[in-house]
Amino acid sequence: MTITTTGALPTPANPGPFGHKLRSQFLFPENYTQFNHGSFGLFPKVEMAKVRGQVAELLHVDADDLALVENTTVGVNTVLRSFKFAPGDRILRLSTGYVNVNKTVDFVCDHAQEVKLVEVPITFPLTDKEMVDAVEKAILHHQSLKDGSRIRMAVIDWISSVPSIVQPVKQLTELLKSYGILVYIDGAHTLGQIPVDLTDLDPDFYIGNCHKWLFSVRGSAALYVKKKHQHLIHPIAIPSDYKVNFASEFSYIGAQDFASLLSISSAIEFRKQFGEEAIIHYSHQLALEGGQLMAKILGTNVLTPDDHQVANMVNVRLPFKDLSNPKLTSSSYLMNLQMDKYGIFTPSFRHGDHFYMRLSAQIYLELSDFVRLGNIWKEIVDDINAESP
Amino acid sequence: MTLPTPANPGPFGHKQRKNFLFDDNFTNYNHGSYGSFPKSVQENLLKWHNHAELNPDRWVRRELKDALAMVRGQVAEYINCDVDELVLVQNTTVGINSVMRSIEFVPGDRIIQLSTGYGAVNKTIEYICDTKKDVKVVEIQLVHPQTDHEIVHLIEKTVQDHLAKKDGSRFRLAMIDWISSAPAVVLPVKPLTDMLHSYGILVCIDAAHAIGQVPMDLRHLNADFVITNCHKWLYSVRGSAVLYVPKKFQKDIHPVTITAEYKVGGFHPEFAWVGTLDYANMLSIEGAFAFRAQYGDAAIMHYCHRLAVEGGQAMAQILGTNVLTTLDHQIGFQANVRLPIKDIDHSKIATPEYLIEYQQDKYNVFAPLYKHGGYFWTRVSAQIYLELSDFVRLGHIMKEMVEFKN
């Protein structure tokens, strides 16, 4: 299937093979529109084949340095719970890190002797430079303490979850390495959403979900461990091949249905029909335009000042008057309202002094879907604002 | 009502093949390793799997927890424990690691393991010893056949000998199989648990093979931790097991994957969501129980046990050898049959890997082969889709293979 006769990439105005016509290849019922691809992903119905080499190719790494695991949480636990932290080590993380990841860091600090956290508070909007400066400031502050401790490892999002922002990982990785700090990149949202070149980025560890943006079945992710660290890293469930070598240890970690991992191949095949460039370009453009459109309907703005901080997800500000309203502080009210009254779901959250929703653009969506979503949220916001005096 | 036997299989035997998913010309002699499931269970799996895709957020955020609790309740009733003492995990290795990597072993702790313990489990104990200061393993050499009494006595003697040393160390935990893997022997877990408890030792039961093969009553057993795979003998899809943790230990046991619920929700919320997975595999336990209910557990267990006993004897007769244990209660659904390989120390021929490849390539069968107590054995799994004639056939295949190799 070719893109267009002129070879131009699909856009919301000229979707080519994308948009609603692609719905038939996914598994939604007729009347459901998926706006939250970012949380749990989706997959098309095709046959299966072999995987690790294909993923290694996508990531520009040696297949022997990759392990297939179930998800990012497993990948993070694998590294953090087997790495030999020593008393006096500090682990650096950002306040915007994903909750499971931050909790795993907490766990490690709770259970290892004299291993503590250094958290960098981050509030968007920030430019790339402001982010890098904030992290460097935290490192220098820690150095000035001169308490004999050292920052051993940093866990950094490539694309954060809520809010969803593409972070300056190249500059951050170089900065951290210049201070002798190991770098673990949480790339949960990266594969299939942005190009990933781990040879260029050269982190110590990287984890990326395939079941989010790559379209494979839930329970499929890829963990990269730099060769020099591999002897230290063991699976969360120790297998018969313990201490044989990295590749063997991670090749079989107990009985499971490998269908999820094997589906990665068919996901890659599906994507080849259109080409990575077309998929990424369309989704990205749709995210930018959809976000702007929704901001206009709501009379607000998107969180990110720079377009390159947006991939396929956009955070749109919701003009709630009173952020202390229990309907907003509740973890389930807005979720239930969206699902029950409107048959949709998008994450919504407080960040800094404002409230945002996060939209995910995808190849099965069109601009009209975002008009609808904007109007839904406007109604929700107006209804709740009407309650306040 | 008479229960099915190899002579009178009733609803079982080859007529069951149409309910399963095997290739036409393949006979599965090794149900014990990775299990298998009938078509109706696969349909149940797909029901859950497809339902999730209709609306992923609704599924994960609103429906999944209750679905998992429903399945947990079914298992709790089946193995007689409180539903709140059970959590679903992917497999025994994950369950064992959840327990062993959560326990705060301290210097001087010793861990008992059996030489017949499963590879990954003993490796997990090795990992614990590698990563904790002055925590060591004491391995008890167990060579069958032994009576139950001899097994209990052997382990108790190890404990007593160690106490006599008075070196400041203490046995903290014992890892005991309910049914060992290779060889497949049902161990006297109740007397062992009681004996170990009398010395203040925690008891972790690797019951990987137990559920669906032997009746389980966890309230009666009163062990400290029990892990069992539903995807072996219960007929659910691979990636479905349960971990039993009594309430008194729950606050200390964390999953191998830490999530948002850490120090927030506690034991059950921590284990209910271990990151994004296709949870359909765990939920297929529902389909497994529905399938079994058609025949009843008594019928399934009686048939498979008798087939293992008679099938094992038939093979031993063909080979001119013997089965590992003749004690009926030590046999579940698996028979260990001796192979009369002449030169068992031959570097090439007498390695299990070589023979395994040979049997697969030439005969399209697979039955695990292993060395135990100075002899070569094969382990054969009985199942409702097998008949005595299958064991006779396998006996002849093994005889031909052994004669050729000798």
TrEMBL record, chain A:
Biological source species: Podila minutissima
Listed InterPro entries: Aminotrans_V_dom (IPR000192), PyrdxlP-dep_Trfase (IPR015424), PyrdxlP-dep_Trfase_major (IPR015421)
Keywords linked to the UniProt accession: Pyridoxal phosphate
Protein name in the entry: Aminotransferase class V domain-containing protein
All copies of domain Aminotransferase class V, residue ranges: 47-318
Coiled coil ranges: none
Statement: the UniProt record of this protein carries the keyword Ribosomal protein: no
Superkingdom of source: Eukaryota
Automatic annotation (TrEMBL), chain B:
Keyword Cell membrane: no
Source domain of life: Eukaryota
Residues in Aminotransferase class V domain copies: 40-326
UniProt cross-references to SUPFAM superfamilies, sorted A to Z: PLP-dependent transferases
Key word Acyltransferase present: no
Signal sequence region: none
Keywords: Pyridoxal phosphate
PANTHER family, per database record: HERCYNYLCYSTEINE SULFOXIDE LYASE, L-CYSTEINE DESULFHYDRASE
Name used for this protein in its record: Aminotransferase class V domain-containing protein
Species name: Podila minutissima
